[in-house]
Structure prediction request, 188 residues.
Amino acid sequence: MGDETCAGPGRDAAAPAAREVIELLEVLWNTGRELTSPAPVSSSQLRVLYILDRDRPVNLRALGEELGSAPSSASRMCDRLDALGYIERPAGTADRRERELRLSARGREHLEDLRARREAALLDVIDAMPPAQRAALAAGLGGFRRAVEASAAAEKCLRWRGRRSSHRSAGGSPGLPGARPAGTRERS
Prediction:
């Protein structure tokens, strides 16, 4: 069963074809981006907006982990997005010393506008495809998304297991990530 996902017909041709499509999409996205976007953001900043749209609210530490970057780098990206009015940083509900990062109404509008423009550009291209190719594209992209989600879920599970092991060695409970012995406080 594992062999069909690791090797097989079309595997070696799929990666270069996907890379070419990604490159075409990057050109398509960027062609009108500067002209139509009121405040263009970098691809890293856009990723922050996507994360905040999906996982809200998030603290700076969790955002840095998700991005795979140092908190100082994540903080600088958030400074720029805050200056644009795309995010909000209210005091945390659990710990008032910690800031929660949230997408603002303006940030949500920016993402909605960007997604609408991208979808319109895609529809222009998809309209030129025969119906059978459209169906094949939808099926292929659905399979690709499921594989990415499964891969991401596996990676998160491995990261969680790593944190769980480190909590165990620090005196945490083996069954509860982050559990601490009674009477101890978590450090920030």
In short: The first strand starts at residue 58 and ends at 59. The mean pLDDT is 75.
